[in-house]
User: Fold this.
Amino acid sequence: MDLSVYEPASLPDLLPLYYRRLFPFYQYYRWLNYGGVVKNYFPNREFSFTLKDDIYVRYQSFSNMSELEKEMQKMNPYKIDIGAVYSHKPSLHNSVKSGTFQAQEKELVFDIDMTDYDDVRRCCSSADICNKCWTLMTIAIRILDRALYEDFGFQHRLWVYSGRRGVHCWVCDESARKLSQAERSAVAEYLTVVKGGEETIKKVQLSDPIHPLIRKSLKIIERYFEEYALLGQDILENKQCWDKVLSLVPEAVRENLLRDFQKARSSVDRWERLKKSLGPLELKKGANSAKEIMLQYCYPRLDINVSKGVNHLLKSPFSVHPKTGRISVPIDVRKLESFDPFAVPTISMMCSELDNVSTIEEDQADANEGEPDVKRRTRDYKRTSLAPYVKTFEQFLDKLDQSRKGEMLLKSDLKKEF
Amino acid sequence: MVFSRTRQLRTTKRLTGDRKGDHYPFSLQFYQLPPTENISLTEFETFAIERLKLLKSVENFGVSYLKGSLEYNAKLESELRKLKFVCLAPNDEIDDKVYDIRRKDHISHFILRLAYCQSEDLRRWFIQQEMDLFKFRFNLLPKEKVQEFLRFNDLEYVAISGEEKDLLQHDLMNSTFGLSTAKLEDCEFYKVPFQAALDLVRPRKVFLSKGFAFIPHKDIVTLILNDFRTRLSKALALSARSLPVVQSDERLQPLLSHLRPYNMTSNVGRTRIPMYRQSFELSSKSFPLCMRQLHKSLREHHHLRHGGRMQYGLFLKGIGLTLEQALQFWKLEFTKGKVDSEKFDKTYSYSIRHNYGKEGKRTDYTPYSCMKIILSNPPSQGDYHGCPFRHSDPELLKQKLQSFKVSSTGINQILDLVKGMHFQLACQKYFELTHNVDDCGFSLNHPNQYFAESQKLLTGGRDVKKEQAPMESSQANPPSQVTSSLSSSTNVTSTQSEEMEDLEQILSEY
Assistant:
């Protein structure tokens, strides 16, 4: 039996090893402590654990790194969620006067889930993903990452693979963490372009003039559209699929296009004809149909409720996905195109990697006994395929540190002037 | 200094008594300073009641008409006149009459602050209505007065430079409706943190760059409203703290508490109506379209996503489903699909119990109103909740109505209302058509009200027993009470499982 293939039943055996030897506690604490600038920022943070048999424990909190580490090694959670920073220690939430226990800050988060694209992908449905539809996530990250930086000015955006079928974004700028609920929903709504549920066919309606966000997003989609939608998904392959697309164009051109489509050979050809037939509609309603179709098929679909609430929980980076065994790893946006969700290490893969090295180095083991835990763990994860992802995380943390230092310098300079 | 500035602006010679012109130079106010004069208790009471009437009208018009439309403006203006909150000041002169009206505006606002500061819900309601009122009045302010008004209230915004404007020209034009290159020249843009202009950020009506929003002059009201909201919200929080002092005043206390419980949303969400075995067909007819849609999709998919479970679950709670019945109902349906009984207990029963105030912070949640359904949490992929009149493609809506055998003239009437954004009126029309009445005789604002009114009609009002509990006290209303009323009126002597069958039957649509 190949031990590196993940089997959900083996999770209880693997988790202790993962939390003891691999989980990057040091970096994790470094992140959530944010330089220790604000008092009690880490101790007042809510964590929640999902334990065996779906037992869900909310309002966990830890005073420092070693407490967090000890607790996690004791409880071996199947899944870890991160919540808000509260006014009091979350673990004491029952003992403070009701009404005074309130969520105060949290990263601005986004959750994009492949299930929400079911009506526009032909390769898989629900929880399944493949390399074909993964492009949707690549596009989503490109579009949102640009908007969060250029439009909102957020510097520190941590993109994380959820471990199964989607991605998360943690915006960690101080100003983002301080956003109120109303402000969070405004940001999320600004970024939402595809609207409507099962009772809506046309989910994108553009109005003139076209807002810069849409223009810039369309530029990004254009880079992927032919390769992804026309060739990969082949969205105009047969009548059944092109009827879906045709329901989105103005009725006036529908019939002609239908005839055109039957003559044409490929999706690319049909798409050209569609664009051409919309040309004469210039300035009238429907002139934007081609753009609207591109957006409906490719624009990121956010789970807006996750972003809105200050106290909403989201799966933590480096948590294991219990169904797939894959680790929630940070994504290096500079190398986004080469990110492969199927190459992300599973917990069983890493544990067997660990085993392989340890058998080789068995004889040296005695010499290492006295080493402190942290140091050994650093070496441990470096020997597994988790290493590059931790590195991406560290680079993110370095940037956070730098801008924090920059701000502190600025502040102390200002003080000196008085 | 302030005195001299305002004196230049206004002629005040006509005022008599204690009236001072510089108090109220404009037809609208920012309400920065509380009134300090003495007033009689009768005046206190009439002022407060009249403002409350005004704010209620503001709310009602906002529901029935599109805010800012001609109809809305006309209605609001006549209401302001009727309640004497507005008066034309000819030649910009402030005479006694104008002064008195503005004084009343000032004082009544502060009285209601006292009555509406004490809970989150009251505060939110008050702020919303005051903002709508302010916005309406601000838009009436002549252009030349706007700058004066801003200066008077220390609200000054800095415009961006010509160079910056040139640099951003394209983006600015693409973010602003109806702005030509020529107009761009004359248009001032103000650069503010995006947090100050959420109402423009949300619908993408403003250009954003590096966290700043570039507000065109025509949208400056958004900034001002934002300021208005922030200050009012802070002031209300402060007032709440000093409330004990006010409440200990035995002259004011009864007046204020009389004003406080606003009953305008009425008790519809809380109306419990017993369900009859024989009324199964009637019941499905009594479901408003949104609930019919949710029920149908639950039947088809044996699943509903969170938004749908909340909207439908609370509606059912509102028409009398007890916690036990709700648990059984949802479980029965869900376990027909992919969810097994164990998973249901783990994943879904918590939130149902939560809705009934048995988990978490133990709030006894009330069913969603039409406003809430229309405005908040719009459905997205995989969702069936929301308002069918608001959130469906007109074409699909039409098909659906056809399938319910609504006449084609009726459908056209409904679609016209939808086009005019009168979703609740559209639903009301649907009610009239499906119940064969010319005028339903109520103004619809709650799905449970729809149900109650329908039951009233269908059963001829004969034995519809309403157990009404006011919204406020409902928190303390134990569900057990409902159970007893339900079983006593239906004479159910059967076991739980049979009851469930009844419920199933009652709820099955076709």
